[in-house]
Specification:
This protein has 161 residues and is α+β, with helices and mostly antiparallel strands. Helix content is 46%, strand content 20%. It has 2 domains: 33 residues; 111 residues. It is built from 5 helices and 6 strands, in the order βββββααβααα. The chain is elongated, with a radius of gyration of 21 Å. The C terminus is likely disordered.
């Protein structure tokens, strides 16, 4: 690892810890040239081998940034912190890597995003669903909003048992 300060390629690892549920390793390093310390992060590169099969059958490499960007657009000006958006992306990736090896359908990614957004923010969910499901008219959108409201009302009802 090259030191960000003196550019030497000679360091030692002082401390290693896993973070983000074991998905990332944080290493604290000390440069043997200038004796300054810096931190590096290592992440498994599985996602680069994964392809997304789109609705039209084309295949594109999986891109986490694209997933996060879609979630951010849905949550624009909503009270959803950036940390929560990253957490949703992490949970979607966990589902993907648990269930798929080389290819995942865009439909699966979209359904997972809607599932998590529905729990976090109903407006963000409706925004995402309106683009993802490509509603043909206002009636389709109204049906989706009505269903989301009904589910939210049912969840707010006190449990009798």
């Amino acid at each position: 690892m090259r030191c960000p300060f003196c550019k030497e390629d000679n360091d030692k690892v002082i401390d290693s810890r896993s973070s983000e549920g074991g998905r990332i390793i944080r290493r604290r390093r000390e440069c043997l040239g200038c004796e300054r310390r810096f931190t590096t992060y290592e992440k498994i590169g599985e996602a680069s081998k994964l392809n997304v099969v789109k609705k039209d059958g084309t295949r594109v490499p999986y891109d986490r940034d694209k997933l996060v960007a879609g979630l951010q657009k849905a949550c624009y000006k909503r009270p959803v912190p950036a940390e929560k958006i990253r957490d949703i992306a992490d949970r979607i990736e966990e589902e993907v890597f648990r269930n798929y090896d080389r290819e995942v359908s865009a439909l699966f990614l979209g359904e997972q995003a809607m599932r998590f957004l529905r729990k976090v923010d109903k407006v963000a969910y409706i925004r995402f669903a309106s683009v993802y499901r490509d509603f043909t008219d206002a009636g389709d959108l109204l049906d989706e909003v009505t269903q989301a409201i009904a589910e939210a009302d049912a969840a707010d009802q006190p449990k009798l048992f």
